[in-house]
Amino acid sequence: MYADRARKAYLESNRLNPLDASTVIGLAMSEARLQQLYPHLYPDNTKNPYNPIPYFEAAVKLKPNGIQYHLALARYLYQTGRGQMLLQVAQSLARMFPGGVYGLKSEPLWSSEVQAAVKKGLQDAIDEKIVAKEAHRSLSHILAAEQNWSEAILHFNKALSYQKEISVGDYIQIGRMYLYSNTPEESIVRFINALTISPDKENRFAAITKIFDNRSHQHEFSLFYSDIENHFLLSPEMQIIAAKKFIDLKQLDKARRVLTAVNDYRPNGDAYYWLARIAEIEKDWDAMEINIQKATVLEPTNEHYRNVFMQLRKRLGKDKGAKKIS
User: Fold this and answer.
1) What is the pLDDT of residue 215?
2) pLDDT, position 170
């Protein structure tokens, strides 16, 4: 049996070098595999001779900074139903490796109980000043997932206090939390900060607009767009992104105003396409035809524009044999 041969090899290696953590974790894993197989191989024997926990614990002691060793122990405890020990390990792991919490959340072992233990561990790290910056950031991440926005903002701001410079992503994250905590003025300031320092304003602006996907924030998006119009010379791409968001939020007049301004500056195929889509929503077929035709003229190689135009012509009965729409 492979697991048994591996265990014997690790035992010999451990005898020769008892301070090698990688050997001990290998021994723990092979022991765990044999423990799992034993009831299937010997169903009549109720006493399982294998116990990998001492080896897992020894590996952790030999390499206390090895997050993978802690994770291996946590996974084993979860798989074998040792819930109380799992909570202790999760709390200890969060205390020593606050940044490791993100990976822990993706594990099958994650639960509300583990989350509570992790929060305790992160608070321990903060109290003991063990990687406090990462502990504040990770705790903020968990609190945001719980929609505890005020506490999430508090810890995120504390994490930022350890940094000399604030990144674009950090400004967007704190802005998102301020928005969801119903303090739009604070969120807009952070979003503008993000755009101010970003070398890629179009993509960052697109990312920010997605934060307003919830229609309960449509008023806040209008405020945000009004402010950035005053702070930046917006590119046509940014204006069209905003117009699409206004369409999504059912604010068609605002979308039309933005798109018309784009075309007034310089005719743009994408702007005319979205004006056509607004006309379609309003069932203004003449306006839709005019705008999609202009989009097609400006971008004659765009197959999508051409298909929309041709399908509309058929619906209007302007192509031979087509039935007119009502």
Assistant:
1) 57
2) 97
Please say whether the beta carbons of 137 and 167 come within 8 A.
no
Measured CA to CA, the distance from residue 298 to residue 273 in angstroms comes to 10
Burial 128-158 (b: 16+ CB within 10 A, else e): eebbbbbbbbbbbbbbbeeeebeebbbbbeb
Distance CA 151, CA 143 (A): 7
Tell me what the mean pLDDT of segment 311-319 comes to.
85
Topology adopted by domain 233-326: 1.25.40
**Joined tokens for residue 287:** 């306006």
Closest of 220, 148, 216, 258 to residue 208, by C-alpha: 220
Strands annotated E in the chain = none
- Residue 141 exposure: Cα atoms within 13 Å on the Cβ side: 19
Instruction: Look up tokens 């798989």; give the residue.
Output: 79
Residues 199-246: tens digit of each pLDDT: 999 999 999 999 987 657 778 999 999 999 988 889 999 999 999 999
Q: Where exactly are the structural domains of the chain?
A: 165-231, 233-326
Integer Cα distance of 289 and 147 in angstroms: 45
Residue 124 CA, chain-centre distance (Å), reads 26
- Count of positions (residues) in the chain: 326
Q: At 99, which amino acid appears?
A: G
Summarised one tens digit per residue, pLDDT across range 235-249 is 999 999 999 999 999
Q: How far is CA 80 from the centre of its chain?
A: 31
Give the side-chain half-sphere CA count within 13 A for 267: 9
At residue 297, does pLDDT exceed 80?
A: yes
Of 284, 280, 266, residue with least CA distance to 308: 280
User: What confidence tier does 320 reach under pLDDT thresholds 50, 70, 90?
Assistant: low
- Provide the token pair at 303: 């197959």
